[in-house]
Structures are given as structure tokens and as C-alpha cells.
Amino acid sequence: MKSSVLSWIIVSIAFVASIITYPYMPELMAIHWDINTEINGTANKAFALLLLPALMVILVVILPKKQNFQQHKYTLLVVQNVILLVLLVLHSVTIAYGYGLSIDIEKVVIPMFGIILAIAGFYMPSLKHNSYIGIKTVNTITNEDVWKKTHKAASSFYIAGGLFMIASTFIGNPYQMFVFFGIIVIIVLASVFLSFHFGKEQH
């Protein structure tokens, strides 16, 4: 699967932003925040400005070469571009911190994660049976019918969970983080339960 022109445009914007802002950044830049949104990790500005753009290149160049990606070309291009846009936003946050701007990182990261979940959920029913991407349990891997039913049913949880994460932007801390982890737990448990439920129907 070849990456789209849009993918490379997004990656290029990230690199151009890094090059333009490099002279104005402090020698040490924030690259990690703890659960209380306090900075607990810094790096040399060259590393900080190249970290996310480099991850974006890996996503565009290396991952699409996986054999199973060929089965889901359109779906994965959409998901790929959404993830690239999310990484671009996070890269912008890193640069903003470098300029001294104060941003509530939770209000950025959690909604972005929600967008990825919602879009992934939307396309889940169209994922064909494979061993690389999707909900992996003993039942879904060994039975294509269980795979289809599980992904179709679980997609609703992913979409709803993603939308709740986006809506949690309006919830104050630390409750937004509780909502985030609660949604993750519910989605994981629902996915596992559904796979075993449909697997049991086969016997």
C-alpha cells in the first residue's frame, strides 16, 4: 500500500515547522508529562523537534509495507492520516511549550485519542480476517465468522468511547483522566467478552 500525497504533506508540515522554529526553541524542551500534566521529561531541542516527525515517517514508510495492509488499503490510509494529524497536533503542542505557552496537555491528548478510537470503530466492521490488525483473541483468530461478528459489535463501543473521550474535554481534572481510563477498560472488556460470546455460539 502506497501512502497518499496527503500523508506526505502532513509529514512535511511537521518537518518544516521544526526547521523554522528550531532557532527560537530553548536548549531543553518538554517531551513528556505525568498524570498531573506536570512536565517530567525533557530532551535536547534537536531530539524534541525530530521525535514526532520521525515517528510520522516510520508510520508512512515502514508500516504500510506489511503484507496484511494490502487487504485494507482504503481503511488504513484513512486511519493513517488521522494518526498523522494527531501527531502533528502533538508536535505543535511541543513547539508551543517551547515558546513558553502553557497548555493543559490532557485537554489535547485525550480528545485526540478519542478521535482515533471513533474513526477506528467506524471502519472496524470492514476489517477482513487477518493476523496483524484488529481484535485478537483465540476465537477471533481461529474463526472468521467470530471475527466479523466481534468487530461489528465492538465497533459501537469504540465509536461511543471515542466520542465520550472527546466530550470529556469539558470535564475538569482529575475526572477527565478517570473517564479516559474507564473508557479504555470498558472497551477492552467488551471486546474480549464479545469474542468469547460469539465463539461460544459456534459450539
Topology:
Blueprint (H helix, E strand, L loop, with lengths): L4 H17 L6 E6 L5 E6 H17 L11 H26 L7 H18 L14 H5 L1 H24 L7 H27 L2
Antiparallel strand pairs: 1-2
Helix pairs in contact: 1-2, 1-3, 2-3, 3-4, 4-6, 6-7
Provide key terms for this protein.
single chain; 2 domains; two-stranded antiparallel sheet; 2 strands
**From N to C, what is the helix and strand string?**
HEEHHHHHH
How far apart lie the N and C ends?
Answer: 37 Å
Number of helices: 7
Low-confidence stretches: none
Average pLDDT: 86
Q: How big is the Rg? A: 19 Å
What is the percentage of strand-forming residues? 5-15%
User: What is the β-strand count?
Assistant: 2
Strand numbers in spatial order across the main sheet: 1-2
Number of domains: 2
Shape: globular
What does the largest sheet look like?
Answer: 2 strands, antiparallel
Helix content: 55-70%
